[in-house]
Here is the input.
Amino acid sequence: MTKDNQPGSVHYRACHLCEAICGVAITVEEGRVTSVKGDADDPFSRGHVCPKAVTLKDVHEDPDRLRQPMIRSGKQWRECGWEEAYAAVAEGLAEVIEKQGPDAVAIYLGNPTVHNWGMMTHSVNFHGLIRTRNRYSATSVDQLPHQLICHWMYGHQLMVPVPDVDRSQFFLIIGGNPMASNGSLMTVPDFRGRMKALRARGGRLVVVDPRRTETAEIADDHVFIRPGTDAWFLLALLNVIITEHLDDLSAYEDFLGNWHQVGPAIAGFTPERAEEICRVPSQTIREIARALADADGAVCYGRMGVSVQRFGTLCQWAIQLINIATGNLDRPGGSMFTLPAVDTVGGPNSRPGHFNRWQSRVRGLPEFSGELPVAALAEEILTPGDGQVRALITGAGNPVLSTPNGQQLDEALEQLDFMVSVDFYLNETTRHARVILPPSSPLERDHFDLVFNVFAVRNVARYSPATLPKAQGARHDWEILTALGERLAQRLGVAPKPSIPPTALLQMGLRAGPYGRSEERPDGLDFESLAQQVHGVDLGPLQPCLPDRLQREDRMIDCAPERVLADLERLAAEPEPSSISDEQLLMIGRRHVRSNNSWGHNYRRLVKGKPRHQLQMHPTDAQARQLTDGQLVRLRSRVGEVTVDLQLTDAMMPGVVSLPHGWGHDRKGVRLRVASERPGVSMNDLTDESALDVVSGNAVLNGVPVTVYAAESS
Ligand SMILES: Nc1nc2c(c(=O)[nH]1)N[C@H]1C(S)=C(S)[C@@H](COP(=O)(O)OP(=O)(O)OC[C@H]3O[C@@H](n4cnc5c(=O)[nH]c(N)nc54)[C@H](O)[C@@H]3O)O[C@H]1N2
Ligand SMILES: Nc1nc2c(c(=O)[nH]1)N[C@H]1C(S)=C(S)[C@@H](COP(=O)(O)OP(=O)(O)OC[C@H]3O[C@@H](n4cnc5c(=O)[nH]c(N)nc54)[C@H](O)[C@@H]3O)O[C@H]1N2
Ligand code: SF4
Ligand SMILES: [Mo]
Here is the structure.
């Protein structure tokens, strides 16, 4: 499909680096990328890109990107051939499985997996072969509460309603910063442009966040809130909607289950009580509740800030109920469900999710959809006994920097009998592997968004062929997983799972999907017709779909899942983390548009300019500690301590400090030359693996109690 050696040929594809899936136009001259621009003809992103788009080229050309498998003995790495690498992995894993059983092998899949359809489809096969209960992923440091709540309420973990931003008149964002993140569980290219349009039609944007973020800067109103107290705020909103009779449930009468339990359960969560805990004036809470109910299409949307915290599941529950109570669920301009071309919710092979079928060995944490909370990974390695984890497979992940108490995990990885990483960098995590299997570069592979079309604010579809030919000897992630599966099956003497190429799976998915080509719909979508539309296909605005789309067996919405109601007691009993003391501050995270979790720091064009990894603090908190702007400070939590530069800003709420995650590239043996020049510190050397959203097991990475003092006095 590529026209690589033609001078100046332009190739269109979707950028896979974040959830916004912008269309890009990439010029290739003599086999080299010479420019990456927005694709003005993409009907969804309309030419929008962010500064990260150019890193598609930089990743491809990065001299630090591994291009050959690597094997380590002692501290020495050497390049090797694929066959030698596969054999070493099959042997390493098989030995552990044979001696200690399949649960002794843990698997961790990181965030880029969901932006990589080959890896997604083929990791399932691989899991099937190993059959371990110790599966982990970035889900439990991220959106687990969303998935759990949607599984319980609507019957499917991916039935996550998204803000219908293009028609909304009132948009409440709590704990999300789409101006930096470009949106999450809300695929929304050109968020800024879409918000301009919202305001131009008389709509209103309100942001609730402990930091006056880039999104707050473009909003009509910004409200500070004390980290970790959002459930109080959200339940107070719901309380006002119910007690002031602002609710309108007429659209859901026939399929709303257990609504009668909601009012009594949340009666104690009044705006006045919430004000004391959240530091949001009760009048503001009442005003926002009324505005949500009044607007002609309103939506309450909450993301990282309200899911990766102490009451993540309660927050996501309250958000669903607010949208239901105001009649905004499944309504244009409100919170709506998508109908993607490959229907992973209503289609065949759908995985609705399951909860607590087994528990983690050491702490008894519940599984969700086959995965355990990653906060338990280190203890599963470190604690002796039956079922102890002795080997680890990581794919597209960097848990040493991205999961709580990363320092402890860093040490635990050293004790494994075997570890293999499928990754193209030698980083903080993969340096512990015995073998690294580097996949092709993203521009060398084709792309279809299996995941983010499910969360897109319009129904769209796009298939991108590979932009560049695969380098000689390179393997795609799915090919690596397939080959590994075959070698391991052979070594264990079991039958390998048949591997179907991603494009064949896509063809099946499209045809079976809601727009698929069939006898009745001869001009419907199939692989060929989709591939011909190089700028992507617009399938129209989101459509109301309830109750038909509900996936619970009773075809109802469950408004009162048992475990959620039970957690209200914990909320009432523990408004602040039990460990916090008077002089402590609450630490939250921070994303920047020029970063990408832990792996955006090795590209000169992205990291240039002023450093961005400082600890941000309000001047009054600095004064109370006799600290000054630019000074080095020590930052201490229950689990660790780091030294970092201080930056004073009144964008922070007093009592709260902010540190971005994904930094800390000065660990020994890391081969990231640009990132190591300006390493920063890892926020997750401070986050606490014992602090969880109890219902889901999701990690608490926001609202972490910390002490800050001058570095010299340590
Ligand atoms: N304190 C704190 N911690 C956080 C967060 C936070 O807000 N605060 N955010 C959390 C969230 S939301 C997430 S999603 C996680 C992310 O956590 P992880 O997924 O564990 O880490 P990433 O930083 O995304 O690392 C991605 C890895 O994948 C590799 N990679 C990139 N593309 C590919 C590919 O195509 N194939 C393969 N095989 N490898 C690839 C990169 O080299 C890198 O090593 O971090 C979480 N951690
Ligand atoms: N540029 C860039 N884009 C990214 C990423 C990246 O690393 N860089 N990561 C991608 C990934 S994996 C994800 S999951 C998404 C995340 O997408 P978002 O959730 O939009 O990203 P964040 O910037 O983490 O936004 C969380 C917000 O919550 C606030 N917050 C923290 N604690 C609390 C709290 O207790 N209550 C409230 N109300 N707010 C709180 C923070 O100040 C922050 O503004 O971004 C994706 N996009
Ligand atoms: S917003 Fe996301 S998808 Fe769009 S160009 Fe930037 S990184 Fe790529
Ligand atoms: Mo994420």
